[in-house]
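Chapter review: from sequence to fold.
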Amino acid sequence: MRRPGVTPFLVALAPASLLFAISTGSVHVGWAGLWHALSSKAPTLDATIVWKLRLPRAAAAFAVGALLSLSGALLQVLLRNPLADPYVLGISGGAAVAALGSMLLGLGSAWLGVNAFIGSLVSMAVVFGLSHMRGPWTQTRLLLTGVVVAAGWGAALTFLLAISPGSDVQGMLFWLIGDLSYASHTGWAYAALFTGLLLSLPLARDLNLYTRGELVATALGARVGLIRTAVYVLASLMTASAVMEAGAVGFVGLIIPHLLRLLGDSDYRRLIPDSALLGGSFLVICDTLARSVMAPLQLPVGVITALLGVPVFLVLLARARFP
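The token string follows.
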């Protein structure tokens, strides 16, 4: 029988992080007010703050964090590199260029999200197509293609920021860093998350074999070709959905799966759901700190994830051994 590992703790952490989010902010909501807001439909100030402001944003943060963490776990096994990240293949770069172009043209927030998603898909198609041209597919080929495409998107972003009006630059920079202030596609984000979980969990056994190498996985009956395509497409679509919702939030997909592996979650039958749970809770806590630590000033959530992610990653890097 398999040990439960950290899963029970993560199951408890998820609602605890949501409770922390809806009770914390520039306006204090006490336990009595919180209970009354959640149990009654009376239109009080506390109920408005909880239901209209904090809970939707916390729900969006959980979905984005879970999407990024799950994408990171899948990409790390695809590239067989524990330092792989959902943004390493240039997917977020395409979304950022499309979103900033929408801002520059004065399009509404709905178009910004849709165009960001389309930009992610275009970048995914470019990287995946180029990595299959003239030669066999390899992890190194895919990684190098993604790095080059990401560099190209970075140049395009610099150009768009250079020609943008000064009044628009701050909003663009907030989106590039990662911001949940205007999250409005939460339903789509959760649909992408549940789809990713439903499609990736049946691949868990093959993913466990794939971590031993392609030759070993093939010899043991793993569907290597299916794993490559499914993992890349799923990770790309989930990353695109997260970027559409919150912009380019960094470090979540990098440190969360790696932290779980150090805690003993090497089996993908546990690592997949645990990554979603811990990634979602982590981003909920980070977003709560982003909007409350310097209230009434709100910081982009990407600032908090970077401030927490950099030292955590350096500690993990110092303690772990990489092949």
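Two observations follow directly from the output. DSSP finds 14 helices and no strands in the chain. The chain has a mean pLDDT of 82.
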